[in-house]
């Protein structure tokens, strides 16, 4: 699975639907935005997987000094079109092109789950955050990924690549599955203080077999 190819292919359609109409991501964006009271004017903020820059524009309107990073050249091009003066780069989470202790805040929405191994991602976020800095992310819930294995005998603990249908079935992507323990891991407890954890139903996510289950969770933690 080549990340930049996968997201280059869906970039146009994603940008077309994610903020308008019944297929949009508006509901979870509203939830994420309602937990951002720690964004103060002048802080250095990184959006990991900034997509087309819609969220970056909002963080900028709150007064943050914004930086963006995304694997997809197409997404970065449209983010740069919206925010021509901002520092928005093509890159991968496992090797962030930023100095140690640089950011006050690192945010990420619906993207961290795309890495097969989450440990390098969390250690990079930790490296670029200042001490006392905030990491807050929204990721696909492992419970949802379990259903996305689409097999009644599926093994929760075995990593598989699944094909979630996102934005009300309008787009299909490929993502590796994760367990909850891969997020709530030793590294997190050792290096961060968790300040917020909440599970949510995603109105725009496919509900397999008509069940109701959490589509994503949000975790906020402060670097020690
Ligand atoms: C579903 S989109 C979400 C975009 C944006 N965060 C939002 O909420 O609108 C996922 C984005 O994550 C990016 N992405 C996924 N895995 C990545 C990785 N390992 N490194 C950098 N970007 C990644 C993709 O290129 C894509 O733009």
From TrEMBL:
CDD domains on file? AdoMet_MTases (cd02440)
Q: Which residues cross the membrane?
A: none
User: This protein's superkingdom?
Assistant: Bacteria
- Domain Methyltransferase type: where? 46-136
Q: Drop me one GO molecular function for this one.
A: S-adenosylmethionine-dependent methyltransferase activity
Please give the Gene3D superfamilies that the UniProt record associates with this protein: Vaccinia Virus protein VP39
What the entry lists under SUPFAM superfamilies is as follows: S-adenosyl-L-methionine-dependent methyltransferases
The protein here is known as Methyltransferase type 11 domain-containing protein
